[in-house]
Amino acid sequence: MGTKTALRAVQGFAIGAGLLLAPLAMAAGHAPTPKECAAHPTNPAVRGGCIVINRASGNCMACHVIAGTTMDGNLGPALRNLRQRYPNKQALFQQLYDPTINDPHTAMPPFGRDHILTKAQIREVVDFLWTL
Q1: Which domain holds residue 71?
Q2: Average pLDDT for residues 89-100, to the nearest whole number?
Q3: Rounded to two decimals, what is the model's pTM?
Q4: Which of 26, 39, 125, 127 is the most exposed place for a label (fewest CB within 10 A)?
């Protein structure tokens, strides 16, 4: 293989790898845009971010500040540094599934217990929140 052919192969791989990693970059540290959600992302963290910003499902920004959203609420804590606040993804999953276990008087709805979101959707939301 000549030098030019090898260079093209490396460039092609880098471009292909960049396209595969693009959904991860979109989700890291901020909510996806409605346009990104309309593209039906395959990355679970991006899909979770789409649930978070969807007013008909998660609607998390109604109560929380979330990087990348413009209509932030102030009822709940800002959604950032969640890796430090929760020891693992399962603890965060449980908080979303039924927050009344930790605080019986919480204003946060029990997304899993009340069948607002499926377990699979909650796992995707956790994947997204873990990027914040």
Answers
A1: 3-129
A2: 96
A3: 0.76
A4: 39
Backbone φ and ψ of 74, nearest 5°:
-135, 15
Here the tokens at position 128 are: 């997204």
Do the beta carbons of residue 26 and residue 38 sit within 8 Å? no
In which band, very low, low, confident or very high, does the pLDDT at 6 lie, cut at 50, 70 and 90?
very low
Contacting residues for 69 by C-beta, under 8 A, at least 6 apart: 31, 53, 61
Residues 6+ apart with CB under 8 A from 92: 82, 86, 126, 129, 130
Alpha-carbon torsion (31, 37, 39, 45), positive or negative: positive
Q: How many domains does the chain have?
A: 1
Looking up residue 49, the CATH number of its domain turns out to be 1.10.760.10
For the CA atoms of 62, 81, 48, 12, the dihedral, rounded to the nearest 10 degrees, stands at 130
